[in-house]
Amino acid sequence: MLGLVVGMAVLFGAMHVTAAETKATPAKSATKAPTKKTAKAPAVPPAETIVLRGDHSTTRALKDLVKAYETGKHGGVTVQPFSTISALDAVNLGTADVAGSARVAMTDRAEEKGTNFYPVAWDAVVPIVSYDNPVSNITLKQLHDLYLGKITNWSELGGPSGGINLYSISAPLDGVEFSARFLLFHYGDQQVSAPRLYVNVEKLEEGIVIDPHGIGFSTFSGVAMNPKIKMLAVEGVRPSIATISDGSYPLYSALYLASRDDSKKHEEVAKFVAFAGSEQGREILRKDDLVPYGDVPDLINKQDTRIAFINEHVFGTSGVSATAVASNSGTPVSAPNAT
What we know:
The protein has helices at 2-24, 56-61, 63-71, 84-93, 140-147, 175-185, 201-209, 220-223, 241-245, 266-277, 279-287, 303-314, 322-325, and strands at 49-55, 76-82, 98-101, 115-130, 137-138, 165-169, 196-198, 214-219, 229-231, 233-234, 252-260, 291-292.
């Protein structure tokens, strides 16, 4: 019996040693086949980036266009929303490559001479109120008198008695305000009686939302999808894609990209402007509640009719010709692509 136990112990010890030895012995690694070095593809130079500075209305309206331009690797666009004046002055000084503007050039401003304004899309300046405001329509004459301080109570506009809070933009020659005042007064820098001033149109809209007595101007594309804001009809015509396209809404206006021929990045800016006019660019503009400029070529020919309509309702005369005011009316007459 003792011999059996000793024999098993010897066998177990032999097995244990053998297992340990096997574990300690490293396995031979497979021999790797030599790899061939592949030549690296030549680096593609990055596309140039341009600086787009503009008023809040235009940069907001074109944000999806910029995104698609960059996604398609056409180039980079650094967007700097600020004000119309700062954008146009930056282009003039060369610190920005292109300006987004909701108005055309002010021809007697030295800083804007030599700058080309390329129309990209049709939009509209629209009078806006809080959604809870019961007033739904306003006339051109009422808008004219409201901005001159001659109308001060909502009862004069068909609403309940209460003071009117007229909102405007503090920055001088703002694109939306300039276009609205030019259409109503034929002077884009017309002085108005607006005691509530905001830094940009987005802040103005925020104020309108919470003020049942407020009224101001914004753009159709900017507020079309805002359920807290009501756009007033003008002379019984509601702003819409259809009424902008056929010219029946009288306060339609254009959005522009403005640049100089002597810009260091003139070719890159030209690429971006061309992209805006391409079928892809136009489809993006349509989705953002804008009417691509090239979609309605006949709209430019309706300027005399439009100006006569406004003059008849505001001044009781149609004596001012569209040709005489076209350089500031928001639409070029002699050239389809630039003023």
